[in-house]
Amino acid sequence: MAMLPVQNFAGDNESDEGIDTREPPSKVLITLSIVPNDPMIRLEDLNLQIRRLEIDGVQWKEFVNEQTYQGTIPRLIVKCLIDDSITNEQLIDEIRALEDYVEEAYVMKRAYQPAS
After folding, report:
1. What's the pTM value of the predicted model, to 2 decimals?
2. What is the pLDDT of residues 53-96, one digit of tens each?
3. With contact defined as beta carbons under 8 Å apart, do 53 and 95 qualify?
4. Residue 61 in 3-state DSSP?
5. Which of 6, 47, 96, 108 is the most buried (most CB within 10 A)?
6. Any idea where the Translation elongation factor EF1B beta/delta subunit guanine nucleotide exchange domain is (predicted)?
7. What is the DSSP string of 32-91?
């Protein structure tokens, strides 16, 4: 009995070069602490400036105003999801670019989120 050659009917012998076979990006929930550069800046205004930032790979989530305690400068706590197209450093640099509002920004916490 003669064996017939196997044919690839799935793609009509076309190459798979244009098909994206990567896994969906994983997400990381980041908690940021953002300190205004002036204690007189309202955290609500800082919140609005941060929300207006359109950064690829970032989904803004929760914003919490941390009030002044015993003379310390108030800060804004921000939660956001980032995917693997942006690093923590890139995100922090984008926020620090708001020089009129931001004195310091840093990552407080990271939590891995499975790919969706």
Report:
1. 0.70
2. 999 999 999 888 876 565 677 889 999 999 989 999 999 999 99
3. yes
4. strand
5. 47
6. 30-107
7. EEEEESSTTS-HHHHHHHHHT---TTEEEEEEEEEPP-TTPPPEEEEEEEEETTS-HHHH
